[in-house]
């Protein structure tokens, strides 16, 4: 069974029981790009904006109370998890997000119509455009929904980063007295403790937490009420402040109205800043994952200084092989985020005049970046970091066979003589102490550098 709906293009058949309408169906016909659904947090953010705006319009006398209350009731039902399957448009779409905005307008309108005793599709009762979208445009609704979504995703990533920092700190304390060989450019350098290495990972993660906290301000101002290009055409003058007030009450965030609504509609550089932050967090943590992967390499022919948990078989042909799959997936998530950062950077630049039409691809990639990092870091904590142990015997063996002593020796006998001892030690497979004695270095000096 179908009902007929029409738009400026013409008539179209919509399933009689569908809550979406002609605009959403057109988008499905036009945009089979990812063939995925909108992220639930993004849908939730859209609903919160529609609810807050209906509340504001009612308070300002711009929306009939009966219609407004029906829209709010429909929104509350969606916020409880209903009708998400009616959001049918592809995340990546032409039109700067208009298809998504109209999809949510249609769903809320049709549910509100039902609540008022009408039949879905009878937009004389509740109109997707005139009522649900009252005082709004895609150009303020869509970017505001993106910002709300990213704030929520930050609230998921931040606790994960805090847990990662705590896990590194525990290991730093546990390994603080275990000496090993430090390396620069993959070559022996000078001694360090395993705990000092893990404390550096802890400090890095704390810095990443601070970065993410600081970047929240970039996406805490909304252009709601700016409508099409930021001039506020068709919206009440007090709508921006009123919507933000209600959104703060609904979400618990500390949002504010954009300093300039035209700028807030034209320019979306804030997303580039957030994406750069995610890339920095991703790449720096990937470096740590690579360190752990290298230090645990082996079990017989690698560095072998760390033991990481065995999570699964590593080969379909080599019996007993175990691979560092968790550090590997962290690095792959970082590659994903870095690639998405390029996409987001290009989309931010591509805006023209009063609007940037490329927010859909920004939101799609940014949401995926947030999810990938949150999930990869959680796996890193639970399946790798908390189970790391040190191969103390291997650390001691490599430390004793290293040539690091010549660094200290150089201050007593000179760089050139110490270099000669190093080369002979490697050439003849002797310890530095053995060769130093052959070169006549006194026992008092050797005792001093060994201390």
From TrEMBL:
<dbReference type="InterPro" id="IPR000362">
    <property type="entry name" value="Fumarate_lyase_fam"/>
</dbReference>
<dbReference type="InterPro" id="IPR024083">
    <property type="entry name" value="Fumarase/histidase_N"/>
</dbReference>
<dbReference type="InterPro" id="IPR018951">
    <property type="entry name" value="Fumarase_C_C"/>
</dbReference>
<dbReference type="Pfam" id="PF10415">
    <property type="entry name" value="FumaraseC_C"/>
</dbReference>
<dbReference type="InterPro" id="IPR022761">
    <property type="entry name" value="Fumarate_lyase_N"/>
</dbReference>
<dbReference type="Pfam" id="PF00206">
    <property type="entry name" value="Lyase_1"/>
</dbReference>
<feature type="domain" description="Fumarase C C-terminal">
    <location>
        <begin position="405"/>
        <end position="451"/>
    </location>
</feature>
<dbReference type="GO" id="GO:0008797">
    <property type="term" value="F:aspartate ammonia-lyase activity"/>
</dbReference>
<dbReference type="InterPro" id="IPR051546">
    <property type="entry name" value="Aspartate_Ammonia-Lyase"/>
</dbReference>
<dbReference type="GO" id="GO:0005829">
    <property type="term" value="C:cytosol"/>
</dbReference>
<dbReference type="GO" id="GO:0006099">
    <property type="term" value="P:tricarboxylic acid cycle"/>
</dbReference>
<feature type="domain" description="Fumarate lyase N-terminal">
    <location>
        <begin position="10"/>
        <end position="339"/>
    </location>
</feature>
<dbReference type="InterPro" id="IPR008948">
    <property type="entry name" value="L-Aspartase-like"/>
</dbReference>
<dbReference type="InterPro" id="IPR020557">
    <property type="entry name" value="Fumarate_lyase_CS"/>
</dbReference>
<keyword id="KW-0456">Lyase</keyword>
<protein>
    <submittedName>
        <fullName>Aspartate ammonia-lyase</fullName>
    </submittedName>
</protein>
<dbReference type="GO" id="GO:0006531">
    <property type="term" value="P:aspartate metabolic process"/>
</dbReference>
